[in-house]
Model the fold of this input.
Amino acid sequence: MKNLFLIAKLDIRESMRSKWFFVYLLVFGGLMALFFITGITDSVVMGFTGLSRLLLIYMQVTIVILPIFILITTVKSISGDRESAILEYMLSFAVSLRDYYWGKMLGRFFIVFFPVILALVLGVMWGVFKGGELPWKMLFIYSALLFSMCAVFLGIAFFISTVVKSHDVALGASFVVWITLLAFLDIALIGLMLQNRWNDEFIISLALLNPMEVFRVGAISLFDPELTVMGPVAYFLLDTFGHKLFIAYSILYPFGLGVIFAYLGYLYFIKKDLL
Amino acid sequence: MIVVKNAVKSFMGVKVLDNVSLKINYGDKIALMGPNGAGKTTLVRSILGFYHLDSGDIEVNGFNPNKHRTKVLENISFIPQTPPPIKLNIEELLEYVSKSSKVSPQTIEEEARKMDLNIKKNLKKPFFKLSGGMKQKLLIAIAIAKNSNILIFDEPTANLDPKAREKFYNLLKELDKKTSAIYITHRIEEIEGLVNRKIYMDLGKIVEDEKIVNQDVK
Ligand SMILES: Nc1ncnc2c1ncn2[C@@H]1O[C@H](COP(=O)(O)OP(=O)(O)O)[C@@H](O)[C@H]1O
Ligand SMILES: [Mg+2]
Done:
């Protein structure tokens, strides 16, 4: 356990110095802070009347870009080190594979989630500064949703990173994952529904299996219970499951999926050749 | 202390280790030679637990390197073929090494000083930004400071200038009598004075294994 935290700490320090983290912090930290701030003031001032157009755009952008950012920056953490022989050297010391893998994972999780926490803090400070009741519950749930979203893409990225030997292939694979999930967001699903190619149950299942869509519906419904802009699949989902149940699902499912992928990656890591 | 029994390892259908058996005793100082692609690195990596053999068995001090990684690696110091582009700075790297291997950073600094490498001056520098020779010296200092009873060096002097090479030899001459060492090398004349056994590999097999009497080796 001691080594696990050591590895996490060193990975965090290394990431903090890197350029990609700087960009990530700026883009997502900034984006999310703005989002929280305006979201909070909107709801504080107007009392949950809903989401402004601008906010909606931010949210959609986050949904689309955050996963690919997590994927491409994380997928190199094992495969890149393997290719450059860093892994060979680091693992020639007496650290267990369990400590190494989960330590790297913990470090990455912190780095990916850090801008979210930062944004949250900024948002809360802004809310306090503006005065009024803070929508604590909303903030909490939205953070949980983001946490879950980070978890699922980190899990997938670590899985790819351990299974694929070369860094280029790993990058390609994460791109394919991203495009596939993107293709099955609401917009595309509507098309399929309208054309009546597939039956509705199948399309609904697809939506429920897609962590990106689950996050999207969960997150937007949090701010706009009226669901004016979400699309028919989302509407159907919320109507069938009810808001509370769906929110619970949109937090638990991506997290669970991430854990499964991370664990599969771990099994591969300990059972197969390391180099 | 290292026993390799009928080790077979293939990559993509090619047997890179073809039924290799080998026993390395306390105090053996080995020059491991052979053409490129002979399987030297693969053998050494199998001993370090990086590969899972197709068949056969390896034991280091009685432990299997895959099943008891940490027990095996506690006693091994390893220097790879080329210094990897580690992005940690020196201070962080030393923290990693000292905490995972129970050596103090001071000991590493002392060993480095014997090769004219001043670590204190470079603590905040990322490892990959050091010059080739400095990297190599640091890796050597770490390997020696660990005070392991097995040393495995994959072409250790490749990046060193003649003077540094000399210092490197002097350090290795100090090795304990009971310490075992494996030097993978193409230039036997460079480490001749350090070894008491020569192993020659080709096409995944050990084709020659001779003990040599060496006055200089303890
Ligand atoms: N991880 C690997 N995957 C596929 N092939 C490998 C791998 N490692 C080594 N090889 C192949 O095995 C052979 C022996 O390699 P190696 O043990 O590095 O030889 P040496 O160190 O004696 O030059 C080479 O043909 C090499 O291409
Ligand atoms: Mg080699």
